[in-house]
Specification:
The structure is a homodimer of 188-residue chains. Chain A is α+β, with helices and mostly antiparallel strands and 188 residues long. The first copy, chain A, is built from eight helices and eight strands. Helices cover 45% and strands 23% of the residues of chain A. Chain A has a four-stranded antiparallel β-sheet. In chain A, a hairpin with a 5-residue loop joins strand 4 and strand 5. The longest helix of chain A is centred in the last third of the chain and has 25 residues. The radius of gyration of chain A is 17 Å and the shape is globular. At the A-B interface, helix 3 and helix 5 of A face helix 3 and helix 5 of B.
């Protein structure tokens, strides 16, 4: 499991075994059951979670009580509420497990200490934030494009292996279309 | 003008005059007239622009030819197409000037060189990316919240001094409401 995190970080920066052990000493481990929440709207959310195994959804509940799914997260991806994490505000997102999920996590405070002591980790986290920013930008372009077919194709591109693991009603919610429209799109 | 950039960077990290001169040597200057484009969809967009003076809008043209405004940028804010900048892909956004606009800009390549030579600038850009990520997240929550009143109040919070400088039709486009609905909101 440690190797999964090491390999992930080494896609951006090189680390000796000793350096990785130092990095790893700033992380903790936590497991969640299907349906449990990793982050709940209204609570503080100081941690950034690296998913070792499992599947989660990140969502927001609109004024009218309707759930809007922002993104899904699976093996070797990170999940957090970026606003709550970086500004120490209360979470505006919910992150809930769709499968039993195992994570390593790092608190904002530990991340700051780690980057001060091993400056190349700043580069890793900076690159990671850039990628997350790009995902959010793609999500915005999806949301404001009124073409459901494009949104469906973008979903398949972003999550090629998840189509079987995510309930159809959640894919429809992510795309902002009805269950019937999704059925039409997936048979097109 | 150099002082404006120095003060901006010094909100995140301390820089000696000599260090700032080194930072500044990685920037270029460019001015744009009202209506001109800083970034156009479909072109490469290697630069990140720091606005010294002026006002711009960042937008995407949907399939149906309708313009969707993502955000506005003004004095001491940064504008770019994050996806195009970080991945060297073609721009999916347009950034157009609503007023005559003066900028300093840094290319992705120069930014990488700068961060390698002066590692504390990595921390500055990392923090900047986090803030941009938060802005995108707020924008997503705005887009998926169906409450126009909330979106209008959020606009006022984010751009307290811009209400007089931005045409009402563009504010309506940003909020995703009609000109008539905006008029009702702004008189509520």
């Amino acid at each position: 499991m440690k190797q999964q995190l090491k390999q992930h970080i080494e896609k951006t920066i090189a680390l000796s075994d000793r350096e990785f052990d130092f990095v790893f000493s700033h992380f903790d481990q936590k497991s969640f059951l299907k349906h449990q929440f990793i982050i709940q709207e209204g609570n503080y959310a100081h941690n950034d979670y690296f998913i070792l195994k499992g599947l989660v959804k990140s969502s927001h509940i609109g004024e009218e009580g309707k759930e809007h799914i922002l993104q899904f997260g699976t093996e070797s991806s990170w999940v957090s509420d970026p606003q709550a994490y970086h500004t120490h505000a209360k979470a505006t997102l919910n992150i809930q497990c769709l499968e039993d999920t195992q994570t390593y996590f790092i608190s904002f405070q530990e991340k700051e200490k780690l980057c001060a002591d091993l400056t190349k980790m700043e580069k890793f986290f900076s690159k990671k934030t850039s990628l997350e920013q790009i995902t959010l930008q793609r999500r915005i372009l999806c949301l404001i494009s009124n073409n459901a077919q494009n949104r469906y194709e973008d979903f398949l591109r972003q999550y090629p292996n998840l189509i079987q693991r995510i309930p159809k009603t959640m894919i429809a919610s992510y795309l902002g279309v009805s269950r019937e429209t999704l059925s039409r799109l997936s048979h097109a």
